Amino acid sequence: MLSPLEVVQRQFDAYNRRNLEDFLANFSENIKVFRPPSPEPAIVGKRQLAEFYAKERFNRDALRAELVSRTVLGNKVFDFERIWGVRETPFEMMAVFEVQDGAIQTIWGFVAD
């Protein structure tokens, strides 16, 4: 079984290749994506995740993420990233990935305004 770090790195690499199939392989069927401060998940389930990334991200030619820093604490991986191709200018975010049983179960995405 892959470590939390390996799982998160695989999804990061697939994101930058805009490879939806490889990207989705790293998530649980019951993935929940939160965008604080909202207490409710923005995305629930792998199907909804696939639809969002197919329609809102992987269709953007300039999409890419730069890993600024990464910290691993148990089964959580904290990625500070710079994202291009979504907005007019790059933006920064902190993505916290919770990994269990070799799959990402939960993501909290904190975006700088």
From TrEMBL:
Family matches, as Gene3D superfamilies: 3.10.450.50
Ranges of residues in domain SnoaL-like: 8-104
Pfam family, one: SnoaL_2
Top-level taxon of origin: Bacteria
Protein name according to UniProt: Nuclear transport factor 2 family protein
Protein species of origin: Pendulispora brunnea
Lineage: Bacteria, Pseudomonadati, Myxococcota, Myxococcia, Myxococcales
